[in-house]
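Bumping with the actual sequence this time:
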Amino acid sequence: MVENNDIKRQMTLYFIFAAAMIGLNYLIQKLNEIIAPIICASLGSIEFFQVFYCSTNPFNMPELVGSIVAVGITYFIKFFLDKYLVFKRTGTGAKQTSIEFTKYLGFAILTTIENIGIQFLLTNFLNAPLEISVIIALSIGYISKFFLDRKFVFVKNLELDIENNKI
């Protein structure tokens, strides 16, 4: 019964933090829309900034960079929220944390591919509205990510393996 209550608490916190990170991601991207014209007006004459941040041809680089920055910041914050508040992994060393972060990022990439694939299938083959396909894809992706993180990332025996030089 304790295990059942623990997983409910973990899932609740996990999804609350996921929703918060979606909001933060959106906020960072909107902030980038305000900052990009200022940066491009003052630094746009420098070729590096022009090519890698200010250019809109052939791709909207300010939007792309904003998306990358937003995803990076939110993955980093969510990792620490999940580690210390959701799964309560305190007192771990730098080596264990770096191993956990590497696994966490790997699973984030896999579940992002899963999200994109599900959304693509629902939208293009089942003619689901974009909003419905996004909700379904994100829900499945976050559920998958929760169980992957719980089983493979934030495991209690990892520090024993590190201490015994098994990793």
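The tokens above came from a reply further down the thread. The chain has a mean pLDDT of 89.
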